[in-house]
Design a protein that fits this description.
Helix 2 runs parallel beside helix 3. This protein has one domain. It has a 3-stranded parallel beta sheet with strand order 1-2-5, with helices on one face. 29% of the residues lie in helices and 17% in strands. By secondary structure, it is α/β, with parallel strands linked by helices.
């Protein structure tokens, strides 16, 4: 599990963490509140696992931090991933479901 600071939404890990802790599946939980998942975290994971296959399971496709809609930033990241890192596959919990299956 990766810890975050609830007050500022900054990951307590760095890109080096994702170079050392390698998996074929990652679960990323956050709804945008406090900026989580933080864009740096997603980029660090992608950069650390460049050209290596993995599946990332995110709990929310829509990210909202109070009045700020962070969904566009996630959409931009996913578009860049699709173009540059096709081995990185992202899955999302369906809006009407309370859980998701990791396979």
């Amino acid at each position: 599990m990766i810890g975050y600071s609830d007050s500022v939404g900054v990951a307590t890990v760095t890109e080096d963490f994702f170079r050392q802790v390698v998996a074929d599946r990652y679960v990323i939980s956050g709804n945008g509140k406090h900026g989580i998942p933080h864009p740096d975290t997603l980029n660090w994971l992608s950069n650390a696992q460049k050209d290596k296959p993995y599946h990332a399971y995110l709990t929310n496709r829509h990210l909202q931090d109070g009045p700020r809609d962070l969904t566009k930033g996630l959409s931009d990241f996913l578009a860049e991933e699709k173009a540059n890192q096709p081995k990185h596959i992202y899955h999302f919990r369906k809006d009407n479901e309370l859980s998701m299956t990791i396979v």
